[in-house]
Each structure stands twice: as structure tokens, then as C-alpha cells.
Amino acid sequence: MIKDTSEVTTLYSPIFLEHRPRDYHPENPDRLLRAVRALQRLNLWKPIEPVPVPEEELLMVHSRDYVELIREKSRAFSYLDPDTYVSPGTWEAALTAFGASQMAVEIALKTGGMALALVRPPGHHAGKAGRAFNASTLGFCIFNNAAYAAKVAEELAGKVLIIDFDAHHGNGTQEILWNDPNAVHIDLHERDIYPWSGYEHDVGGKNAEGTKINLPMPHYSGDDDYIYAWDEVVLPLLAQLRPKLVVVSAGFDGFLGENLTTLRLSELFFAYAGSTLSRYPLAVIFEGGYSVGLGKGLPAFIRGYLSGEIREVPVSPSYEALRTVARVKEVQSEWWEF
Ligand SMILES: [Zn+2]
Fold it and tell me: Which is one Pfam family of this protein (predicted)?
């Protein structure tokens, strides 16, 4: 069924532009403005301004020491590691990003549609106390917006499904939710790149086994490979879980031409992914995407969601993609039916 554009709510604040690099950096305020222009072209630009959460809310997903470290460091510009900076606007932006994530969950549950938290700084690499699963850096992330959205969703709906299609593994999200049986997390990403985690056999901690599903996709994967993985793993899980809400960690850096990874995704994959989720309330949390993916991948995902029709897309995945998906299904068949 075709959805009405009123079923997309965007949460945005100019405060998100105040997390600023000093010199050129791929994670910069222009990214958000690109995304804003894409939404304007879709006639979907009627943002609601979120409010910052109280500081204690950060402790839902982060340690007190890490929260204090960020608060102190962001009084001036500094680098936390070779990838990740903080600036005087970071603290307020990060608290407001949590506010947007919380509102996205509440609005999606209320309307049954999509609520898009168009936030910076991004979050999915941020673990409980900073770097997650021995990652070398925080990968541009400060506080984990998606993990917080998942916790808010659990309070309101009991269980939650998180789907992360950013090109990189959502290691921070997975670390925070590792032992949480009520948070099912599916993560598609390019294998063997930063943050060097998220393999087939990583299935969740004690009493949460099978709630973490990693699809480490081969280098150079494109639409056929991703749609194949989506059909074979994501759709069966959706059918078995029938979640009341899906949190999407939405990164568009796998788009062909983003040049941060070898992935070669196009509008086809993002529109398809969106269309298969159209029956669910979505809290979409903005992650990566630095150039062409924002202008093309983001609107394709939204258009797919609004189109409401799941079209069968014939695909011819690579041999490596077939093997990867077969391994994931074999490991996960202990908990899921495929
Ligand atoms: Zn990424």
C-alpha cells in the first residue's frame, strides 16, 4: 500500500552543525546539509526540532567515565584518536542527537510511519566506554544514538530489531547490546575493513545467543549481493520476529562513488531495503554517508519505504556472497528458520 508523505517525520536541529572539525574532515557539517537538500527535493522537509536529553540519559548506554571524558574534552577542540574529534559544539549536539533518537522511537510507534533522526555526531562505532571490540578508533562517533534508541524502544515495546546497513560494522551498537536478549541486531557490512569485527560466528553473549546476526559481505559487493543477503537473512528474520518497531542504523557510505569502501551499492538496494520495511514503524538513525550516498541513497530508501510495494528483484550474487550468506544461515540456524 502506498504511504502518504506525512508518514515521514524528520528530526533535525542546527545544533548538529556545531560539531565541527578544524581542518578538512570527511565527517563535517556539510554532510547533513546534503541530506537536508535531498529531503527538500522530495518535498519532505518539515523538520521537528528535538530537545537535548538530560546528561543521565547517556548512562543508559555509556559508562560514567566515558561520558565525563567527552564532557571535559569537548570544552575545546581536540582529537580523541586519529579519526575522531570533539569541538565546543560537540556536547550539546550529542545530547540533542540522543533527544532526536528518543523522539524518533516515540513518533514511529505513535504514527506507524518513519521517523528520521538526522543527527551528528554519528554513533554506531561508540561502545559503552569508548572504542568497542578493540577497534583502533571511535570512527568519527561520540555517543551511540542507535543503541540508545534501541533501549528506549525496549522500554516502550519490550523487544526491538536493529538493522544496520552502514558500510562498516556497527561494533559499538553490538558491544552495548551484546548480552541483551531483547535487542536483535542484524548488521550488513564490508568484511575485513575498519573496525575489523562483525563476523559470522559473532552471535551475541550468554543468554543472548542468536540475537546478533552479522553479514560480513565480500569486498566489491553490489546490489545483487546485498539484495540476496537481505532476501535470505533479513526477510526471514523479520517474518519470525514481527517487531513492533525497527531501529535502522542508516549509513549510506556503501554507495558506489563514496569511495570509503569497495562496496558498489546503488539506489536499487536502498529502495528495495526501504520497500521491505514499509509495513513497520521505523526509527531511522543517521550514521555514515559522506557524498553521493546522501544525495541518492537516502532518498531512495525513503521512496522505497513510501512506495509500500515489495517488488521481487531477480539477482545474481557473486560466488563469495553466496558462500557468506550460506555460512551465516548455517551458524544462525540454531536459532532461526531460513
Ligand atoms: Zn560507515
Answer: Hist_deacetyl
Q: Summarize pLDDT for 84-105 with one digit per residue, the tens.
A: 999 999 999 999 999 999 999 9
Calculate how far, in angstroms, residue 335's C-alpha sits from the geometric centre of ligand 1. 28
169 is catalytic: no
- The mean pLDDT of the chain is 97
Cα dihedral angle (301, 304, 306, 309), rounded to 10 degrees?
-160
Q: pLDDT for 136-165, tens place per residue? A: 999 999 999 999 999 999 999 999 999 999
For the segment 271-290, the average pLDDT, to the nearest whole number, is 97
CA of 251 to the centre of ligand 1 (A): 6
CA of residue 58 to ligand 1 center, whole Å = 22
Q: How far is the CA of 137 from the centre of ligand 1 (A)?
A: 13
Catalytically annotated residue among 19, 62, 124, 125: 125
